[in-house]
Amino acid sequence: KLRLTNLTKLTLDTGWWTRYRSRTENPDLNPNFVFPQAIPDLSHGQHTAIPRTDNDTNDPNLLQVIANTAGFHFATIEQGGNSLYPSMAQRAISVEVLRILISIGPTETMHFQTWQDKAGNAPQVTAFDPVNNNTTTFPDLNAPPFGGEDFQTNLIMPEPCPFISSTLPVCSIIRPTETNGIAVGVVNFLTNMGLFIGQSSAFFNFLHQLAQEADAAHRTGA
Fold this sequence. Notes:
Blueprint: H1 16-19, H2 60-89, H3 95-119, E1 125-129, E2 134-138, H4 182-193, H5 201-216
Antiparallel strand pairs: 1-2
Helix pairs in contact: 2-3, 2-4, 4-5
């Protein structure tokens, strides 16, 4: 049966983990800064977040890696929504659309914080995936070479960081919330993740058309 999304060949950017723990960097002010990955192995190659067949349950370490990947995948998706809704709200022309965005957006934040907390409980494990042909390690994020406040697993509140201007006091915020190009950026983010592997060119053309139209919206006088 065909699926809209692919969950068996994912590549996850877990830089959001250190982005929300950083006290000095905000991608809105320094978009070229590269936030360290929480789980470096997930940022390259392809990884499954669901068992593909019963064979995946034979190795308990592989099954744990799959479960851990799912936890980080959920959080990765939700942190995107965490930024998407406030970013799009800045472009909303209709008050009703604005109401929709500011009503859904906070629930994304609640989802993100929950899944970030769950991801922090991922057991340390290493396993080889014979289907995707890679070895994935989930390290102890509280110990070297990780550790410190940038990786500490129980820090799930956004650390204060620069906002609007580096001359202003730091503030605990959602980041990024830059509105320019946000819709196309989200489409590219999900595509690069591998979420839409297997979809047709017509699907991608339509998706990009919708995103471009969303990015073209602007407030009167803005």
